[in-house]
Each structure stands twice: as structure tokens, then as C-alpha cells.
């Protein structure tokens, strides 16, 4: 039995725990990136950006609730289908 096997190291000489943590970190970062991408594509941050815009550009304007925002957005999309593929 080699010294590295006794000490819990892999063939590269790095401790097994270090490789495991690096693998878990890479998987976690990949999942976070995928969630961010899908959230961006589906418009998950649109309401927050809209509220920031209203506060910056129209400070006296009433800010709709998130539910009202999505209701208005979908109603506008139904009235104006130019931005859709179908």
C-alpha cells in the first residue's frame, strides 16, 4: 500500500476531500448558472427591473404589485402579439 493511499490522497496526490469539495462546488456553480439563465429567459427579474425603473424615472408614480405587473404585461402581450413567434 502506498503512502498516498494511507493518507487518503488520490493518484494526483491531492487529498480526496479537496477533490470532492471542488466537484461539489463545480456542480453547485453549474446549477446556479442554469437557474440564472432560465430565470433570465423567462423574465424572472423583469418586475424588479421595472420597479427600479419606476423609482428612478417616475418617482411620484404608484408602483403596482407584482401580480398587477404580470397581469398588465400578459394583457399587453395579448393585445399586441408582434413580439411573439406564433
Describe the fold and architecture.
The protein folds into two domains: 42 residues; 44 residues, no CATH class. Helices cover 67% and strands 0% of the residues. The chain contains four helices and no strands. It is elongated.
Number of strands: 0
Strand content: under 5%
The helix fraction, in percent, is 55-70%
Number of helices: 4
Q: How large is the radius of gyration?
A: 25 Å
How many domains, as an integer?
Answer: 2
Q: Low-confidence stretches at least 5 residues in length (pLDDT < 50)? A: none
Order of helices and strands: HHHH
Average predicted confidence as pLDDT:
85
Quaternary class: single chain
Q: For the terminal residues, how far apart are their CA atoms?
A: 66 Å
What structural class do helix, strand and pairing data support?
Answer: mainly alpha
Largest sheet: none
Envelope shape: elongated
Task: Please describe the structure with a list of short key phrases separated by commas or semicolons.
86 residues, mainly alpha, 2 domains, 4 helices, 0% strand, YbdD/YjiX family protein, Sel_put
Summarize the structure.
The protein is mostly helical and 86 residues long. The chain is 67% helix and 0% strand. The protein contains four helices and no strands.
How do the helices and strands line up, and which of them pair or pack?
Blueprint: H1 3-7, H2 16-42, H3 46-57, H4 66-79
Amino acid at each position: 500500500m502506498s503512502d498516498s493511499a494511507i493518507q487518503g490522497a488520490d493518484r494526483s496526490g491531492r487529498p480526496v476531500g479537496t477533490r470532492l469539495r471542488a466537484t461539489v462546488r463545480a456542480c453547485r456553480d453549474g446549477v446556479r448558472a442554469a437557474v440564472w439563465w432560465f430565470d433570465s429567459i423567462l423574465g424572472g427579474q423583469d418586475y424588479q427591473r421595472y420597479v427600479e425603473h419606476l423609482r428612478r424615472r417616475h418617482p411620484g408614480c404608484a408602483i403596482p404589485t407584482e401580480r398587477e405587473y404580470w397581469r398588465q404585461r400578459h394583457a399587453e402581450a395579448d393585445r399586441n402579439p408582434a413580439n411573439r413567434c406564433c
